[in-house]
From TrEMBL:
PROSITE patterns for the chain: GATASE_TYPE_2 (PS51278)
Record keyword DNA-binding present: no
Entry keywords, A to Z: Glutamine amidotransferase
Domain Glutamine amidotransferase type-2: 2-277
Cross-referenced Pfam families: GATase_4 (PF13230)
Protein name listed in UniProt: Class II glutamine amidotransferase
Amino acid sequence: MCRWLAYSGTSVVLSDLLYKPEHSLIDQSLRSRMGVETTNGDGFGVGWYGPGGETPAIIRDTGPAWNNRNLRELASHVSSPLFFAHVRASTGTAVQQTNCHPFRHGRWLWMHNGEIADFHRLRRSLALELDPALFSALEGSTDSEVMFYLALTFGLDQDVPGAVARMAGFIERVGHDEGVEHPLQMTVAVSDGVRLWSFRYSSLHESRSLFHSSKAETVRALHPDLDFLRGVSDTTRLVVSEPLGGLPGVWKEVPESSYGVVQPGTDEFLPFVPEPF
């Protein structure tokens, strides 16, 4: 599958989180401890929101993240208050730039770990449900991108949890109609540049790993030696496929079949149930 990281909070230099922590996302691309695959070398991507920019920037490439000089160079010079980073292990679709995460549409960023089971059988039925105005924006061949455009079709702009629930419910219905017992496996991150939503769900109720960080004030108390945390706000959060190492006491597992939103004010963690379609 894949490994990913989402950050929201005080603006940081991307390299501080991509490279510096023990067992960073770059290390996970080569030596994942909790993923289905140990190596996630089928491409990578980073998306971030700049100051005052409604449309996020993205860079994606098909090679492994661990030895990409351009990624290291860029990450040490770009700061952002909200960014996504993803390292890919293909589940069967081509290793090509348009299949690398995160995916972008307008102000939205989306990335995914997991799969639609037997996607090759379900793909046509799923794609026919897409809003015709969105279909031409579909660039790659992954189940992850189809999930994103289904969520957009089902009202992501108006209601993120509802749209993702309708997307999940539709995939399960199509899958069951085709005899697929457990159609969906997903951890998903999605953002509009202001809020960050994360979802953990699978039809089998044995979802891929997902963790969120404790409050920044708690992390500072536990690890006062971390320089980059000294100036961050208490609303700063990380959501990760697997914990960054060297930070005991920081990580909390996202509950099975749940979603969370990091936003101005109070964070929320609520049950996630696919909506019948």
